[in-house]
Specification:
By secondary structure, the chain is α+β, with helices and mostly antiparallel strands. It has 12 helices and 33 strands. Bound molecules: (2S,3S,4S,5R)-3,4,5-trihydroxy-6-oxo-oxane-2-carboxylic acid (GCB). Pfam families: Glyco_hydro_2 (PF00703), Glyco_hydro_2_C (PF02836), Glyco_hydro_2_N (PF02837).
């Protein structure tokens, strides 16, 4: 990684300095418990108040963070994690745009407040979209972006005197602008014959509901004051030896020692090292394989890092254990390779979305979704259209599900959204995303955006810079974005490693005419390939389908039409996957909520499962196809074991 970063600066230094961007400060390791670290989750009921004042700024004018929120006026109970939109009966809250306020008291263990050698950190997994955080009325953090974590070191505040609890206040604003990711616009309607004074709406160019709130866990965790701040691991394979390159960043002291130890799944030490940077060699390494490619897929080693530091108070130790999968990823003119073998993505696009909780993290839903992915025989998904919760990525590592990790760069279509202000923010978001997800073996490719107006003139410079920056941050993974532009007009595809194309033949174009799909799809693939000679993924295709609607001969919105459309796509995919098409991802795994519009019958219904995760007919069709594809993926001469083709969940 060091080499990567050095390389990054060599290539991009002048460019980045030019637009005033510094690489992010500090790491963002997932907060794991260890012998030196504790964590305390703050999930549950928080106090909540939406600021319905005309300018939405009453909370700041009256400084609601200074005293308990209930003293400011009427407040509600609000579950965390959850979106706030769908839990109540108040229609105004469902579509609220502006500042909302969350608050809760946390009781701290005595040692945390008295031991000055303990560092106490407040971590917010996701606050959509802009967040300001106070602890006991003192401002501790601000963050832009709804899908990535941020932290504040609150040690000084909680260790400044006798204290057994602290009050955490978080103000969150879901307003989107042309420079946010995703972008949006506020439109004031000034015709007083039609709208009341001050009336406005928020418009977006993306097709999912702009749920807001505290969507993931909020927690406190501790480390010693000298601590392991970041770990970066990249892996390679030399014959049958696995190579694990590591780089560790320590904060708090310059006088420390680092020991690293790599353990196999049985807990046996297979390699050891010392110092902040090095390479571990693992003879006869077990590689990390996607779950349908190997009898023992998703093999994870554990990298145990031990820091020993000399401080004024004596020696302190910090321990952190990182799961490590040894694997390689490579792209050729016509293949996507994992561990040197061609990999075909047969999977889904998802959303973080469900009834009531909106985008709130939910373990039962997550496990259900993974069981459905297995039932389907899906080996991959794209995190359309934003980074998902860290726990999702961890399960992909453990189950061997391959991920295309996508940024919230969805709906970049306005000219202003290609400005330097937007670009700079997008570069920072990629830094946050790579920093968070760089160590997941399941992540095999970064997607910087979905369906931008990549035919607009500024798109060339914008995506050249963005993709180069992402590659410089992580030279070990290919980079893409997802296009729906015409192959002749697209100015950004020259910079990608894999071409990801969305198309909706016989849905948005020539609707009702499934007979044109084969010709149009073949033309699509051939045009892109002839122009670029890069592997192609059909990154979206699908049809709106209301479960229980049946029409034969098939009509749009019926289950039969969805199946029929998919079958037409599959004919061409089966031809082209023998050449250069390396994947197919259905739109969408499940129905999901969108803004209201005449095109949407309570959300987008292109799911092969309903929003409640029940299968439509197309799910059975895809299931048959995906398991067939899995069985074609011969590895080490043997087909995927037939017992996999049941309802069995992932096992270890
Ligand atoms: C797309 C978008 C996706 C939409 C989908 C649709 O191209 O990438 O966000 O939901 O089409 O159903 O219109």
């Amino acid at each position: 990684m060091l080499r990567g970063l050095a390389g990054a600066w060599a290539v991009l230094g002048p460019l980045l300095w030019g637009c005033g961007l510094a690489l992010l400060q500090g790491g963002m390791l997932y907060p794991r418990e260890s012998r030196s670290r504790e964590r305390k989750e703050l999930d549950g009921l928080w106090r909540f108040r939406a600021d319905f004042s005309q300018n939405r700024r009453q909370g700041f004018e009256q400084q609601w963070y200074r005293t308990p929120l209930r003293e400011s006026g009427p407040s509600l109970d609000m579950p965390v994690p959850s979106s706030f939109n769908d839990v109540g009966q108040d229609g105004r809250l469902r579509s609220f745009v502006g500042w909302v306020w969350y608050e809760r008291e946390a009781t701290l263990p005595q040692r945390w407040t008295e031991d000055l050698g303990t560092r106490v950190v407040l971590r917010i997994g996701s606050a959509h979209y802009y967040a300001i955080v106070w602890v006991n009325g003192v401002h501790v953090a601000e963050h832009e972006g709804g899908h990535l974590p941020f932290e504040a070191d609150i040690s000084k505040l909680v260790q400044s005197g006798p204290l057994s609890s602290c009050r955490i206040t978080i103000a969150i604003n879901n307003t989107l602008s042309p420079h946010t990711l995703p972008p949006g616009t506020i439109l004031y309607k000034t015709d007083t014959s039609k709208y009341p004074k001050g009336y406005f709406v928020q418009n977006t160019n993306f097709d999912f509901f702009n749920y807001a709130g505290l969507h993931r866990t909020v927690l406190l965790y501790t480390t010693p004051t000298t601590y392991i701040d970041d770990i970066t691991v990249t892996t390679d394979v030399d014959q049958d030896t696995g190579l694990v390159n590591y780089q560790i960043v320590v904060q708090g002291s310059e006088h420390f020692q680092l020991e690293v130890c790599l353990l196999d799944e049985e807990g046996r030490v297979v390699a050891k090292g010392t110092g902040g940077r090095g390479q571990l060699r693992v003879p006869s390494a077990h590689l990390w394989w996607p779950y349908l490619m190997h009898e023992h897929p998703a093999y994870l080693y554990s990298l145990e890092v031990k820091l020993t530091a000399q401080t004024a108070a004596g020696f302190v130790s910090d321990f952190y254990t990182l799961p490590v999968g040894i694997r390689t990823v490579a792209v050729t003119e016509s293949q996507f390779r994992i561990n040197g073998k061609p990999f075909y993505f047969h999977g889904v696009n998802k959303h973080e979305d469900a009834d009531i909780r909106g985008k709130g993290f939910d373990w039962p839903l997550l496990v259900k979704d993974f069981n459905l992915l297995h039932w389907l025989g899906a080996n991959a998904f794209r995190t359309s259209h934003y980074p998902y919760a860290e726990e999702v990525m961890q399960l992909c590592d453990r189950y061997g599900i391959v991920v295309i990790d996508e940024s919230p760069g969805v709906g970049i279509v306005l000219a202003q959204s290609f400005s330097n202000v937007s670009l700079q923010h997008h570069l920072e978001v990629m830094e946050e995303m790579v920093r968070r997800d760089k160590n997941h073996p399941a992540v095999v490719m970064w997607s910087v955006a979905n369906e931008p107006a990549s035919f607009l003139k500024p798109a060339g410079y914008y995506f050249k810079t963005l993709i180069a920056h992402t590659k410089a941050l992580d030279p070990s993974r290919p980079v893409t974005f997802v296009t729906n532009s015409n192959y002749e007009a697209d100015l950004a595809v020259p910079y990608v490693d894999v071409i990801c194309v969305n198309s909706y033949y016989s849905w948005y174009h020539d609707y009702g005419h499934m007979e044109v799909i084969q010709l149009q799809l073949a033309t699509q693939f051939e045009s892109w390939y002839k122009t670029y000679q890069k592997p192609i993924i059909q990154s979206e295709y699908g049809a709106e389908t209301i479960t229980g609607f049946h029409e034969d001969p098939p009509l749009m919105f019926s289950e039969e039409y969805q199946k029929g459309l998919l079958e037409q796509y599959h004919v061409v995919l089966d031809q082209k996957r023998k050449e250069y098409v390396v994947g197919e991802l259905i739109w969408n795994f499940a129905d999901f909520m969108t803004d209201q519009s005449p095109q949407r019958a309570i959300g987008n219904r292109k799911g092969i499962f309903t929003r409640q995760r029940q299968p439509k007919s197309a799910a059975f069709l895809l299931r048959e196809r995906y398991w067939k594809l899995a069985n074609e993926t011969k590895y080490h001469g043997s087909a995927v074991k037939s017992q996999c083709v049941g309802n069995s969940p992932f096992t270890f």
